Amino acid sequence: MKNWSKVPLCVLPTPIHRLDRISEQLGSDTWIKRDDLTGFALGGNKGRKLEYLMAEAMAQNATAIVSCGASQSNFIRQLGAAAQMCGMHCAVATMESPYESLDRKVSGAFSRGGNRDLDELCGVDRREFADGTWADLKAHAEQLQFELERNGEKVFRIPLGGSSPSAVHAFVEAGREIQKQVDFAFDWIITASSSGSTHIGLAHAFRDSQTQVLGISADPEPEIVDDLIDLSQSYADEVGTHSLSREEIKFSLDFVGAGYGIPSSAGQAATRILMKSEGIALDPIYSAKAFSALLSLVSTNQLEGRILFWHTGGIPALFAKPG
Question: If 0-12 CB within 10 Å is exposed, 13-18 middle and 19+ buried, where does residue 101 land?
Fold first, then answer.
């Protein structure tokens, strides 16, 4: 078994509680896990990953971190803060609206305010590029890494969204955290899914239990399922277990809306419902779409039993604006 080390960043455990008014409205038993309240760099699930990723970087004596993402990336915001705390330079390649292929290119992403305004505060050295494919974005990050290495930096490269075996492990531990907080089992956990480590970590944590983990995609890319399988395999290789099969990875593309980075009308409606019912805000890119899925699936009797909504944070995106 791998010995996982971490740099403490988050205030854990994050709260878990029942959504009484939502439960009454839906005729359900619905709960929420408040990873919007991790307490690090404006909160969100990314802090859990970074505890392990930054420990890896420090173990390798890195002086700089390189990664990439969309311009409103929650991960980049928190990565910048974590790198500053650990005495490292953080350089990232960004695009406003990366896409998998031209037929899925979208416009109208929120390019002003929000996370972008916070990145400088968090110490991010941002290098912006014209929109292209995700592969193009990763190639820009690779060139950025070469540039820093030529300048004498020892670079630790972090993949898109921080998704790696260490990030998956962070959410295996998060699953165990729940089991210490409540003395019952959930039938369903609903979470936003994009780069995949939150989704896959929870799926590994609750494997072979009554709890099913459903990831609600924030990206309109069917190929993401293959990425999720690969991520599970990489984690399984690290810890000496079996990877999740395609059938074990429950994943829905039905609530993406117009595309990645574009708020959906159903998500905006879900945001109003949760705020008016429970006083809890959602972000428009991830958690709003995931909560809209929960509302739809419960109302159509596709989700039954005790349900946990995993709030992944991302609240700064509420203050983002179109370019």
Answer: exposed
Both 190 and 310 in one domain: the answer is: yes
Mean pLDDT, the chain, integer: 95
Q: Which pTM does this prediction carry?
A: 0.95
Average pLDDT over residues 116-142: 95
At 153-167, the pLDDT tens digits run 999 999 999 999 999
Note whether residue 34 is domain-resident. Answer: yes
d(CA 317, CA 315): 5
**252 occurs within a structural domain:** yes
For the chain, the domain total comes to 2
CATH code, domain with 78: 3.40.50.1100
Which of 23, 58, 45 has the alpha carbon at shortest distance from 315?
A: 45
Q: Is residue 317 a contact partner of residue 287, using CB atoms and an 8 Å limit? A: no
Q: Is 133 exposed, middle or buried (0-12, 13-18, 19+ CB in 10 A)?
A: middle
Host domain of residue 303: 16-44+163-322
- Exposed, middle or buried, 55 (CB in 10 Å: 0-12/13-18/19+)? middle
Judgement on whether residues 80 and 179 belong to the same structural domain of the protein: no
Contacts of 119 (CB under 8 A, 6+ apart): 76, 77, 80, 126
- For residue 275, what pLDDT band results from cuts at 50, 70 and 90? very high
Sheet containing 89-95: give its strands across: 124-128, 89-95, 64-70, 155-157
Indicate if 128 and 207 belong to the same structural domain.
no
Same domain, 183 and 289: yes
183 class by beta-carbon count within 10 Å (0-12 exposed, 13-18 middle, 19+ buried): exposed
Residue whose C-alpha is closest to residue 122's, from 75, 60, 156: 75
Q: How far apart are CA 131 and CA 137, in angstroms?
A: 8
Residues 37 and 153 in one domain: no
Residue after which a domain boundary falls, among 102, 133, 162: 162
